[in-house]
Design goal:
With 361 residues, this protein is an alpha/beta fold. 37% of the residues lie in helices and 22% in strands. The protein contains 12 helices and 13 strands. The strands form 3 sheets. Strands 1-2-3-4-5-6-8 form a 7-stranded parallel sheet. The longest helix is centred in the C-terminal third of the chain and has 19 residues. The radius of gyration is 23 Å and the shape is globular. The two termini are 28 Å apart.
């Protein structure tokens, strides 16, 4: 299977008619000035020079603002520029991010002409009240219409949703995930809400009218969301905002984040938490007092099984007095595991050979 690389080009707030309560795109993207054509070329060339795998698939992705809301002339300019790299064989396709109310048949016809393959919609919530509270300027009906149009025209559909919007609850976010699953996206991004400088949400936070979701709660909700999407074979391509100089610990001087469930390894917290839950669930099914468990996984999964700063290893030892041993096997499918109980407390199970391994399927 060929490797795939995304070449990100940020067009902050271009084409977006709304100031969503949580949004300051220049802070989130790290892009303080609007991009020129030369800036875009420099970005693309930089990434191409640093991708050493010539056989890899490459996709130029326009992120940030609502791409299809940009003036048509500017859209054509950016798409033309990206398309040149497709024509000369350096890039395979284009991806754009936009609002659901900025999709129609004519827009899709233009995107198809330039080999745009993937369209990501900023959904955020399936609850119209919460969308209104966040000043999104569209309803979930717009999401449904746009999603169906995108799929019918044979684009790859992506959705972006948020956790912790004002007045949103974990139940609302679970319902959003279920509503998105019905629309059959190929991929999803999940973003916990951070309070960013220069936003209306910052003002609400300072006035005591908004309370950010605590980190542990954000992780627990995202675990449930990832499971829901994974069960339907929908790829969760990001969990949490990317850590940058601007989007970092609120204690950092350079950070634009005021408050919220920020963590530099947020996705790892979610995925390692899911592994921990899985291991504990399987151990509890045995009518024995486990002393040591051996988990064999693909090398890619090792860090998540161990946990951020060995959190899973330490929790199993502290709460269950279980030692966790992690082994690697490249033949193991990513996300799958083989768990064996390698030691039990003898006084809980008579006439059992301590060396015998108990396999858990």
């Amino acid at each position: 299977m060929k490797s795939e690389y995304i070449i990100p080009v940020f067009v902050p707030h271009l084409g977006c008619p709304n100031d969503c309560i949580f949004c300051n795109q220049k802070s989130i993207s790290g892009q303080k000035n609007n991009l020129s054509k030369e800036d875009v070329k420099k970005t693309i060339e930089f990434y191409l020079e640093n991708i050493k795998d010539n056989s890899a698939k490459k996709e130029i992705a326009f992120f940030g603002g609502s791409f299809t809301g940009i003036e048509e002339e500017r859209q054509e300019e950016l798409l033309n520029l990206a398309y040149e790299y497709i024509e000369n064989g350096q890039v395979d396709s284009i991806r754009i991010s936009t609002r659901p109310d900025y999709i129609n048949k004519n827009i899709l016809k233009r995107l198809k002409k330039y080999k745009v393959r993937t369209i990501e919609l900023g959904v955020q919530s399936a609850n119209d009240y919460i969308l209104g509270r966040a000043n999104r300027g569209h309803t979930f009906k717009d999401v449904e219409i746009a999603s169906k149009l995108i799929r019918r025209n044979h684009f790859k559909l992506g959705h972006q949703m948020m956790v912790g919007l004002p007045e949103s609850t974990p139940k609302d976010e679970i319902e959003t995930a279920k509503a998105l699953i019905k629309l059959k996206p190929k991929m999803v991004r999940i973003y916990p809400v951070l309070v960013v400088k220069g936003t209306r949400l910052e003002k609400e936070y300072e006035e005591g009218n908004y309370k950010p979701v605590p980190l542990p709660q954000a992780v627990e909700t995202c675990k449930q969301l990832v499971r829901l999407f994974a069960n339907k074979n929908i790829d969760v391509i990001r969990v949490g905002l990317q850590n940058t100089d601007e989007i970092s610990n609120p204690e950092n001087q350079e950070s634009e984040v005021v408050a919220g469930p920020f963590h530099p390894a947020f996705r790892q917290l979610v995925e390692s938490g899911m592994w921990y839950d899985s291991i504990v669930e399987k151990i509890k099914k045995l009518n024995v007092k486990v002393q040591e468990v051996e988990v064999t996984v693909n090398p890619i999964d090792v860090n998540n099984v161990i946990g951020h700063k060995k959190e899973n290893v330490l929790k199993l030892k502290e709460l269950y007095e279980v030692d966790l041993i992690v082994k690697q096997d490249e033949s193991m499918k990513q996300g799958k595991s083989k768990i064996e109980i390698t030691r039990i407390h003898q006084d809980f199970l008579e006439d059992t050979d301590n060396k015998e391994k108990v396999k858990i399927k």
